[in-house]
Amino acid sequence: MIANGVLSVVIAALGPKAGDGSGPGTPEPGMEQHLPSMEELYPPPFWRIGDGSVFELNRLGLVRIIATVMVVLLVYLGARRMRLVPGRGQSTLELLMGFIHKQIAEAGMSPALARKYLPFIATLFFGILGMNLTGIIPGLNIASTALVTVPLILALSAWVAFVVRGIKAHGVGHYFADALFPKGAPKFMLVLLTPIEFLSTFILRPATLTIRLMANMIAGHFLLAAFFGMTAYYFLDAGSAIMKGAGVVTFIAAIIFTLFEVFVAALQAFIFSLLTSVYIGLAAEGH
Questions:
Q1: Which of helix, strand or coil describes residue 15?
Q2: Strand, helix or coil at 30?
Q3: Chain centroid to CA 213
Q4: Tens digits of per-residue pLDDT, 168-181?
Q5: Is the whole model's pTM more than 0.85, yes or no?
Q6: For 27-41, what is the mean pLDDT?
Q7: Alpha-carbon distance 56 to 282, whole Å?
Q8: What does the domain layout of the chain look like in residue ranges?
Q9: Are the C-beta atoms of 111 and 255 separated by less than 8 Å?
Q10: Distance between CA 153 and CA 201 in Å, rounded?
């Protein structure tokens, strides 16, 4: 009984709950009570300005605010007292900034351009990483990027960045002509190639950035919710010893997938930032 009670507390803290996503509730018999649903991604608002107002706040919005504050606070604490002999916080921040500079910014654009766009690329990386990691933080239990809003805004910011860079580097007419009409292509092929270039450069780039980030975070959330939900069912509702043994397996799997989700969160921040860097570099260089 004590072991079951302790485990239920651990599951409630670590595992995303099914239902409205507002936190742990009283489990009811049946596996369906523990499995995740799409309702978790659309929690009801708990605060709004007036009836029917679009200015409202739900749990997911609160998680995004918390993630933003945490990222800003951690960066501030690491950079507020820069010293010649850095402490642990400054060393960690410098290590991350060096990684972003060399492995992300300079991997997609020239060194001079990388220095100019480093603050933007670093903001993308830290912001995405922080919002992705909220999916495994006890009490938050949902990635801030699991809905389309945040990934789309980030993708549009990347789109604006590479379009503006291209216009500054080549001028409006030359940039769009270079992007839409491939050099050396036969004129009769432009009827086919121009729409393809337009879609791939100006539509598919932000669309794929959005969908890739959102889909990975949604998949990770439901994977963790399913394993923790099955663990809760096997230990708290299922009565046989075999089921409790299965609960041990699903609990171990949930912990492993939680660690894997940390890797996925960092990987998606890296991929998004790297592709943004590549797009800016391509816009600056032209075809």
A1: coil
A2: coil
A3: 5
A4: 999 999 999 999 99
A5: no
A6: 61
A7: 40
A8: 2-72+109-285
A9: no
A10: 17
Please identify which residue in the block is written with the tokens 């069912």.
Answer: 233
How many angstroms separate the CA atoms of 113 and 216, rounded? 30
Instruction: Report yes or no: 163 and 272 within 8 Å, Cβ to Cβ.
Output: no
State the residue for tokens 């309702």.
Answer: 39
Q: How many CA atoms lie within 13 A of 146 on its CB side?
A: 32
How many whole angstroms from its chain centre is CA 209? 10
pLDDT tens readout for residues 205-255 = 999 999 999 999 999 989 998 888 888 888 887 667 788 788 889 999 999
Rounded CA gap, 87 and 282, in Å? Answer: 38
DSSP label at residue 56? E
The residue count for the chain: 287
Which residue in this structure is represented by tokens 């409202």?
Answer: 56
CA–CA gap between residue 53 and residue 137 (Å, rounded): 30
CA distance 246 to 231: 8
Contact 159, 134 (CB under 8 A): no
